[in-house]
Amino acid sequence: MDAQFATAAPATDASSFLDLAITLVLNSWPALTLAVQSNWGGPTSADKRDWLCGAISDMLKERPETDAEDLEDVLIQVMNDEFEVLVDDESAGDVALEIMEYRAQTARGDFSAIQGLWEKWQRKSSQKAAATNMFKQVETRDEDQETDDDEDESDAEDVEMGDAPNLVRAPREKAEPEIDEDGFTMVKKKR
After folding, report:
1. What is the spatial distance between Cα 129 and Cα 126, in angstroms, rounded to a whole number?
2. Residue 78: how many other CB atoms lie within 10 Å
3. Can you tell me the distance from the alpha carbon of 55 to that of 60, in angstroms, rounded to the nearest whole number?
4. Most buried of 65, 90, 117, 175 (most Cβ within 10 A)?
5. Smallest Cα–Cα separation from 119: which of 108, 111, 110?
6. Which terms does the UniProt entry file under GO BP (predicted)?
7. What is the DSSP string of the chain?
8. Could you write out the three-class secondary structure of 81-123?
């Protein structure tokens, strides 16, 4: 999920809550997430996911007769056309049902489940950010230590090591082939 979405203003009406739900559900769909992270839709994979969120929102507003099967068909087609992913694990149907349930809730004026989903997403995002920052700090410390170690090595005086053992073997002398009394060359097994 991009930083712009993570800092978006909270939803205030039924339409914006539904848009939020669609975005959260699609950003949580493992098949789409993997396709975006792997750039299976090309370098604009994240933009394609954002476009899909808007397209589904528009479809639900412009065609109120849309049902879960219609939505599932759209999800499968977009995954195939835009990301070259054949979704055959029925997850597209689950995503479609979840979006349709949030649509029904917003139509009733019930936004509590979407608000809970949003809060869960924010907690998860902040935990990821904290983990990323901790990783960056550890990585920075490791780089600092390597630099310090390099400086210590360069400051140290050279120590005489004496005669080091030969690490390169002298080539073996090739044994002359043995020829038996009939004139045949004997083949010896290598060790």
Report:
1. 5
2. 21
3. 9
4. 117
5. 111
6. rRNA processing
7. --HHHHTPPPP-SHHHHHHHHHHHHHHH-HHHHHHHHTTTT-TTHHHHHHHHHHHHHHHHHH-TT--HHHHHHHHHHHHHHHH-----SSHHHHHHHHHHHHHHHHHTT--HHHHHHHHHHHHHHHHHHHHHHHHHHHHHHHHHHHHHHHHHHHHSPP----SPPP-SPPPPPPPPPPB-TTSPBPPPPP-
8. HHHCCCCCCCHHHHHHHHHHHHHHHHHCCCCHHHHHHHHHHHH
CA-CA distances (angstroms) from residue 100 to 18, 25, 56? Answer: 10, 11, 11
The predicted-structure confidence for 6-47, as pLDDT tens digits, reads as follows 445 566 789 999 999 999 999 999 999 999 999 999 999 999
Kindly list the domain boundaries of the chain, sorted by start residue.
3-135
Question: pLDDT tens digits for 64-100?
Answer: 999 999 999 999 999 999 999 999 999 999 999 999 9
- Residue owning tokens 């087609």: 77
Residues in the chain: 191
Give yes or no for a contact between 17 and 11, defined as CB atoms under 8 angstroms apart: yes
154, two tokens: 């360069």
